[in-house]
């Protein structure tokens, strides 16, 4: 992915906007010569380090690999690659093993073992020690998670037999790992090369470049004057305001460059790219839309939520970009840009109301305004998302998924054959297109639960915490958007899901109790504990009573779920049988 940069000539002050990939070596105004390295030194590593710090590990990895493709032995790029592979967001994070408890240890260790420059290069001793540091951090993380698990079980279930001994053992392992880590880290820092002594690798510049031709008129972004191409200097020059633009800004695939930058969260640079596209294509829907997203620092409209973070947005700039969309609209994009502007105005109203609520927290009128916006926004967002993905073929994952009417019509068949991925995609779009249609929400909810029909639901159907949250959110959203006569239906469905969650929590407690019973029985058989001791008898009686109590709760939940499911299945048949048959 290339970058965009503006320079000022040190001799005459002329302004020059270029791609980092362009071989520009002289000032268009005074002819002063510049070296390639002077323009581009440190740019890629600086970008990579910023991506790493913001936890955009895939983008950081891409940048480090680009540097290594030209300079395989670059120490800082190699270290950055190791860190990004392990999802470690900075060198400073290595100072404390507690910072690494959620990192991907094996990713870093794999790079260290497979990269020949790490194992055989000039800094091989450093990277060998770094491998030792990460391995010790892995042991520390294992002890940390084990201790946390014991503490959580104790707080959730109650006193666990032998818990104190297990916690003390985990604490000892943590202490040993921390001491070993501190020793290895100190040795690692002594092996780190001096940054000032790192050699600069000069990149050769191609001497001949074929200049592509463009027939479109290009207008200066600053003054609106026409740009003139200087083929000798490979620049577009504005004679009115004295700005020059590198020719590569307008050739090749400038939209792809802008989209890539936007995808990786480089909003300022992406906005510049989009503005350059508008210099020769004033009505570009993608560029106008992209500038709105960049102004709000969003990657997609789908990620915008009604939270207090909206108060941090520069709404003056966002609305200015929305107005620019409406000025650049055509007959085909008019409705779309009007929808964008309506959505942005509603979001600004929400932001302003939140600010006023902070000033007057007891004002009932502001609370009502927030409730009204909260009800209106989901429908508006769904219309916008549908327009993005279907009408204008903008896919949020930047893929080329095409949802034809024929494909969408087969959503129910995909669900029946348990192709939940296809059914999920189709029902997701149908809900966007028809946000008040209960039958599509019904199918979308079935996909989340991995059911082909609701009568196949079971109280044991707790797939994972993540899917349970998604399932609950979809039911709540359906309840807010569908006609009122379907509210009772989705309310009852939500009750069933709540019972599934309760049953899962109850099962975890029973499982923990039985695990403690098994451990006590084994200790008694080995003679570790005295079964005649009064303390043992009390503990065993308490644990057995607890297990039986939760087993009775299990039976109650199963019965309640079965009765409620029968009622719900009958309601489901009455409301949807005709629609599903058709």
How would you characterize this protein structure?
With 582 residues, this protein is mainly alpha-helical. Helices cover 63% and strands 4% of the residues. It is built from 21 helices and five strands. It has helices at residues 36-40, 43-53, 57-70, 75-85, 105-114, 116-120, 124-157, 163-191, 254-263, 267-280, 285-296, 315-327, 334-359, 364-391, 405-409, 411-416, 420-433, 438-449, 465-481, 487-526, 534-581, and strands at residues 4-8, 15-19, 227-230, 235-238, 243-246. It has a five-stranded mixed beta sheet with strand order 1-2-5-4-3, with helices on one face. Strand 1 (4-8) and strand 2 form a beta hairpin. The two termini are 50 Å apart.
Brief write-up:
This protein has 582 residues and is mainly alpha-helical.
Whole-number total of structural domains: 3
Radius of gyration from the alpha-carbon trace, in angstroms: 31 Å
Number of strands: 5
The percentage helix is 55-70%
**What overall form do the CA principal axes indicate?**
flat
Tally of contiguous helical segments: 21
Which spans of ≥5 residues are poorly predicted at pLDDT below 50? 10-15, 20-26, 33-41, 197-215, 395-402, 578-582
Numbering strands along the chain, what is their spatial order in the largest sheet?
Answer: 1-2-5-4-3
Helix-strand pattern? EEHHHHHHHHEEEHHHHHHHHHHHHH
Q: Structural class given helices, strands, pairing?
A: mainly alpha
Strand residue content: under 5%
Q: Describe the biggest sheet? A: 5 strands, mixed
Task: Give the averaged pLDDT, no decimals.
Answer: 78
Distance between the termini: 50 Å
């Amino acid at each position: 992915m290339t970058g965009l940069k503006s320079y000022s000539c040190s001799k005459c002050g002329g302004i020059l906007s270029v791609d980092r990939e362009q071989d520009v070596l002289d000032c268009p105004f005074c002819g002063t010569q510049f070296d390639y390295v002077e323009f581009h030194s440190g740019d890629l590593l600086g970008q990579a380090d910023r991506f790493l710090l913001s936890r955009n590990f895939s983008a950081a990895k891409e940048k480090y690999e680009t540097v290594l493709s030209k300079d395989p032995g670059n120490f800082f790029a190699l270290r950055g690659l190791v860190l990004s592979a392990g999802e470690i967001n900075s060198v400073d994070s290595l100072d404390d093993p507690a910072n690494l408890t959620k990192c991907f240890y094996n990713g870093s260790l794999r790079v260290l073992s497979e990269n020949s420059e790490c194992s055989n290069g000039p800094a091989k001793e450093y990277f060998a020690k770094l491998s030792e540091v990460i391995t010790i951090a892995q042991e520390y993380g294992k002890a940390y998670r084990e201790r946390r698990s014991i503490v959580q079980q104790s707080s959730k279930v109650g006193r666990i037999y032998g818990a104190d001994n297990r916690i003390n053992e985990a604490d000892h392992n943590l202490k040993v790992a921390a001491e070993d880590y501190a020793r290895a880290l100190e040795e690692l820092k002594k092996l780190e090369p001096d940054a000032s002594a790192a050699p600069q690798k000069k990149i050769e510049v191609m001497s001949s470049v074929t200049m592509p031709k463009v027939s479109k008129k290009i207008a200066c972004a600053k003054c609106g004057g026409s740009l003139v191409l200087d083929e000798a200097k490979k620049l577009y020059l504005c004679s009115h305001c004295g700005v020059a633009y590198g020719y590569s800004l307008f050739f090749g695939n400038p939209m792809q460059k802008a989209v890539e930058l936007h995808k990786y969260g480089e909003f300022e640079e992406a906005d510049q790219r989009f503005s350059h596209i508008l210099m020769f294509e004033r009505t570009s829907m993608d560029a106008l839309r992209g500038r709105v997203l960049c102004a709000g620092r969003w990657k997609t409209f789908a990620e915008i939520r009604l939270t207090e973070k909206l108060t941090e947005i520069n709404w003056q700039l966002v609305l200015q970009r929305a107005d620019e969309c409406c000025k650049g609209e055509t007959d085909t994009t008019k409705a779309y840009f009007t929808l964008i502007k309506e959505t942005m105005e509603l979001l600004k109203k929400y932001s302003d109301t939140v600010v006023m609520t902070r000033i007057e927290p007891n004002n009932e009128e502001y609370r009502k305004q927030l409730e009204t916006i909260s009800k209106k926004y989901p429908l508006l967002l769904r219309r916008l998302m549908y327009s993005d993905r279907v009408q204008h073929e903008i896919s949020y994952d930047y893929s080329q998924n095409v949802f034809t009417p024929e494909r969408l019509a087969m959503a129910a068949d995909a669900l029946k054959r348990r192709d939940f991925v296809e059914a999920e995609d189709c029902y997701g779009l149908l809900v966007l297109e028809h946000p008040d249609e209960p039958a599509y929400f019904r199918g979308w909810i079935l996909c989340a639960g991995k059911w082909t029909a609701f009568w196949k639901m079971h109280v044991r159907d707790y797939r994972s915490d993540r899917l349970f949250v998604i399932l609950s959110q979809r039911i709540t959203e359906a309840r807010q958007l569908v006609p009122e006569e379907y509210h009772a239906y989705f309310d009852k469905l939500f009750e069933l899901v709540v019972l599934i969650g309760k049953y899962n929590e109850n099962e975890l407690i029973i499982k923990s109790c039985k695990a403690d019973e098994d451990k006590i029985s084994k200790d008694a058989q080995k003679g570790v504990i005295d079964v005649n001791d009064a303390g043992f008898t009390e503990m065993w009686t308490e644990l057995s009573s607890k297990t039986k109590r939760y087993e009775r709760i299990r039976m109650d939940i199963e019965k309640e779920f079965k009765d409620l499911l029968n009622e719900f299945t009958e309601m489901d048949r009455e409301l949807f049988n005709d629609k599903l048959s058709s």
